[in-house]
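--- STAGE predict ---
source: upstream dedup step, 1 unique chain passed
mode: sequence only
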Amino acid sequence: MIKYIFFTLLLLICITTSAQEVADTRNQYFALNTFYIEGLGKAGNVSLNYERRHILNEKQAISGQIGVGPDVSAMKVPITFVYTRRKKAHQLVAGFGKTVYFDAGINNSKYIYHKLSYSLEDSFWHIQLGYRYQPGTGGVFAQILYTPLFGSEDAPGPVVMGIHHWVGVSLGYSLKNTNVK
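--- STAGE serialize ---
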């Protein structure tokens, strides 16, 4: 019995060690953390965004993005899941997500703050398809994306019933990977 436990622990240590080496070498292909400003994109106007990547292999990655964008009396929070395929610093981007609309409850006639509330019914869906320039070791980041927004009857701001076609432009900075040898 002790032999089986010892063998299992030894096997787990070997697998874990091997997985860490693979993860370290994969990080050289993609910058893992990116901060950027996007105009006319998934927030419908302008937004400040953060992206965190998970490397699949040397040519592919998936990532999660979250941002914040202002509105007249509200705040928009776009949340997006993205697939990226790369060839050197040039990348093809495809993603989808939802932009949640937080209403500050400001009475426009008196400018009085009431409460912060949100409603998923007031939110809208988005898709992203486009091109990205991003060196794998970090540095300047730029992208241009076709971003259709799918509004409902209750959708806020510029996104009302139907599909609205936007072209978003992003500029930002990708942090350098510290664990690349």
